[in-house]
């Protein structure tokens, strides 16, 4: 009797970290349903899966839309029979200083990164509870541990995700469901290009802003971090695979040396020392003073 292949639903599964995870899990024998909004990216992944004979099916899902999520989850349950693993990977990033952050952008930030996660998780949980098993992986970020300048919107969404996950992990423990945070640092993906496009209205006004130096220092520091990062999307996918297959998974898995350092620093360093480090990293100095 052959062992049943486990079924995975991954949001944001057609690009970046999600795409790398989809392909790795499929190569390891998981049946992967990769959700995404872009029809072009879904078609590209479908073609690749067909050519490589991988057990991947894509589906349209907008995590900000209740009906889209309901239809998507029902599709996976109909075609896959059950959902053994949910990977909440879909996310966006709005980058701006807090004073100039538009409320509509902050709402959009949370609609995807927090409420979208909640929608999908609430749709899947009844089925996992009925099976008394399952794993839910939340794709957080090093920005869920520390908050660099201009990352107020993104970091706050990831901090909120971490808090939501900590409660959920305890709540579903009686039902045999494990909830796991994955915390990557800088990894070069299309996420950065999307964030750049979303930040364009702020970038156009940045030079005339009283925060001009904050913008330039923050964005250059982030670009420098990505250029120097040797961690690939495939490395992150390997961490996800380990978290799925571990018999006793940890509550958190950091990815990249930066994320490991940030996790350690957040636990042991006082905020004043951590702030001092971040000011040096992003070139933040007090006006009228040498540094």
Set down the secondary structure blueprint.
Blueprint: E1 7-10, H1 16-27, E2 31-36, H2 39-52, E3 56-60, H3 66-80, E4 85-88, H4 103-131, E5 134-139, H5 152-171, E6 177-184, H6 190-198, H7 200-206, H8 212-228, H9 233-245, E7 252-255, H10 257-268, H11 271-281
Parallel strand pairs: 1-2, 1-4, 2-3, 4-5, 5-6, 6-7
Structure description:
The protein is 55% helix and 13% strand. The protein is of the alpha/beta class and 291 residues long. It is built from 11 helices and 7 strands. Helix 5 (152-171) links the parallel strand 5 (134-139) and strand 6 (177-184). It has a 7-stranded parallel sheet, sandwiched between helices.
User: Strand pairing plus helix content: what structural class?
Assistant: alpha/beta
Q: How many helices?
A: 11
Spatial strand arrangement across the major sheet: 3-2-1-4-5-6-7
Rough outline? globular
Strand and helix order? EHEHEHEHEHEHHHHEHH
In short:
This protein is an alpha/beta fold and 291 residues long.
Characteristic key phrases:
291 residues; alpha/beta; 7-stranded parallel β-sheet; 11 helices; 13% strand
